[in-house]
Amino acid sequence: MTLIAAPASAAQAVRLQYRTSAPGATTAQAEPWLRLFNTGTTAIPLGQVKIRYYLTGTETYRFACSWAVIGCATITGRFAPQEGGEQYLEVGFTSGTLNPGQDTGDMQLRFYRADWQPFQQGDDYSYGSNTAYADWDKVTVYVDGQLAWGTPHGTEPEPEPDPDLEEPGGTGELFDDFTYTGPADPRLAQRGWTVRSASGGPGVPGATWSPSAVSFPGGLLTLDSSTDGTAAGTVHTELSTAQRKFHEGTYAARVRFSDAPVSGPDGEHVVQTFFTITPLRYDLDPDYGELDFEYLPNGGWGEPSSILYTTSWETYRNEPWLAVNTHTEERASFAGWHDLVIQVSGGRIKYYVDGRLFADHGGDYYPETPMWIMFNQWFIDLQGASGTRTYRQQVDYVYFSANEVVSPATVSARVAELRAAGTAFKDTVPTP
Predict the structure, then answer these.
(1) Cis peptide before 152 (omega within 30 of 0)
(2) Kind and range of the H or E run holding 413
(3) What is the CATH T-level fold of the domain 14-149, as seen in this structure?
(4) CA nearest to 61, candidates 34, 30, 37
(5) Could you tell me if 226 and 393 are in contact, meaning their C-beta atoms sit under 8 angstroms apart?
(6) Calpha distance 227→230 (Å, rounded)
(7) Phi, psi values for residue 217, rounded to 5°
(8) Which residues face 107 on adjacent strands?
(9) Percentage of the chain lying above the pLDDT 90 cut
């Protein structure tokens, strides 16, 4: 096969071989087996290596490593969306070194649809039906961010910058460590926060939005929403910025989602969120915008179990209901702490979960106007069970850099620096 890519360097040259143990064009799971060779003259840290396998369709897939000579524990896999209804599986490594003349040996990988439905792999760019290893240029290899093997397919995102080299380059930053004494702490209002008490949607009609259910134990924003199965006995919670001054740039928060209530029986359709929003002035207002992380631990909206949505909104109409949005979802438990990042720049909205690109939206769904930043927890409906149950969502910090794309790794590094310097709050974001 002829490669169009030159090696990343003569010293760091690689070659990749591929075979499959599931050669059918339709399959319950794809099984690409790979071997990576170091054909250069210097050792290559495997942490610098990314392998991309390109596939067609926007379905949600799960990655697994069945067996590997170098150990499955050192192999990672994530799916990244591309334009035109395509995506790729990016395989990485947490440790190891590939010396000159060596290869990784078998890496027996597989992926399957999250709903376990059969799918067509015959039209995937990287697929081949060969069951014996052969050099394969339809799977690409990147070394230290540079193409070293293969012919890429579709859109290729820019390599993420090195967090050690990236300095703040935006036009203002917001950071809050949530070190408050309670919902009545006067510093909340002084620093531009509003604890919601006003009635209204979203969620159960007639429910209360209660400041007393918002607290900050140990510097964690804590939202305790509860219900006894009645609208009058239902409490929602929300913390919002008071000013709509956040538009293009990078939004980030470390959020703890929960699957089970801290007290009472489980089973309610609760929504746990981190989002930005512009108010809707009238039906189908074109200046409306909303960018959501929404976790439903018990399902809802027709979903039977845990699901995480990222949704980008153009607008909506309430009666009769019409939603103009696009969303990406994964049906899995996301209980626990997660680093959530939204990058808004150049007509694209990119959502990251724990450093993994989760969704890439754009077009009409790109926000046109400044937004609030919000966290809330509310009930979609009531299941009618007896006894009061309380669900808890927590937030460790929030960060925003205006007019700057900041990688998830760099967000974490900046937050660590702010905390090391003893900074509990910072807001230099200008008001439009």
Answers:
(1) no
(2) helix 408-420
(3) Immunoglobulin-like (2.60.40)
(4) 30
(5) no
(6) 7
(7) -65, 130
(8) 34, 68
(9) 80
What DSSP state is assigned to residue 377?
A: E
Same fold, 14-149 and 173-427: no
Q: What is the mean pLDDT of the chain?
A: 91
Q: Which residues pair with 240 in a beta bridge?
A: 194, 374
Cα separation, 423 vs 338, in Å, equals: 22
Task: State pLDDT tens for residues 213-227.
Answer: 999 999 999 999 999
**pLDDT attached to residue 155:** 72
Q: Is the link from the previous residue into 432 a cis peptide, with omega within 30 of 0?
A: no
Check residue 136 and report its DSSP letter. Answer: -
C-alpha to C-alpha distance for 296 and 273, rounded to whole angstroms: 9
> Which option is the CATH number for 173-427: 2.60.40.420, 3.40.50.300, 2.60.120.200, 3.90.1530.30?
2.60.120.200
Residues 307-357 pLDDT 10s: 999 999 999 999 999 999 999 999 999 999 999 999 999 999 999 999 999
SS3 287: coil
Whole-prediction pTM value?
0.64
Opening angle at CA 353, ends 175 and 336, nearest 5: 85
Tokens for 358, please give them.
Answer: 């989760």
Distance CA 305, CA 297 (A): 7
pLDDT in tens, 247-262: 999 999 999 999 999 9
Query: What are the sequence ranges of the domains in the chain?
Result: 14-149, 173-427
DSSP letters, 196-244, are ------SSSTT-EE-GGGEE-GGG-EEEEEEESSSSTT-EEEEEEESS-
Cα separation, 353 vs 247, whole angstroms: 20
Q: Which residues pair with 195 in a beta bridge?
A: 239
Contact 109, 65 (CB under 8 A): yes
Q: Hey, how many other C-beta atoms are within 10 angstroms of the C-beta on 218? A: 10
